[in-house]
Amino acid sequence: MMSIILVIWGFLLISLMAIGGYFMFRKFLKRLPKEDGKSIMDWEEHYLEETRHKWKDEEKEFLEELVSPVPELFRDVARQRIASKIGELSINKQENIIQRSTIIEGYIIATPKRDHKFLRKKLKEKSIDTTPYEPLFQQSKDNYDFDWREKYQK
């Protein structure tokens, strides 16, 4: 009986360490500098700092509503990633303040396709038409990583 408990405990301990190591390794990879000398996380922080003054309270609340389905443990990371993509779009569009349409576009681009159903549901609750965003919904997140700017311009 005791040996079974030890085996189960050992398996549980190794499994939890492997899961934690996986997430730590992913964060480490995001911190590695790319060709331009900045990492993914450096660029996220850059876009957040550059656009911090552009956010109005209503837009911050709207973003909070959109990220509310994300489990609380991961919500801060998701919020930062999405807000940085929104900031990048805002800079590219040369907006003076963050627009609701930019928030929706940034959310679509920054999140995996499987999370789009939550966005669609939230937009439907708010009576916001998703028709202008359908081309973005149709693309997968993988396509955004390399050439999302070119596709967005079209």
UniProtKB/TrEMBL annotation:
Keyword annotations: Membrane, Transmembrane, Transmembrane helix
Family matches, as InterPro entries: YneK (IPR020203)
Domain of life: Bacteria
A Pfam cross-reference name: DUF2621
Transmembrane portions of the chain: 6-25
UniProt-recorded name of the protein: DUF2621 domain-containing protein
Source species of the chain: Oceanobacillus kimchii
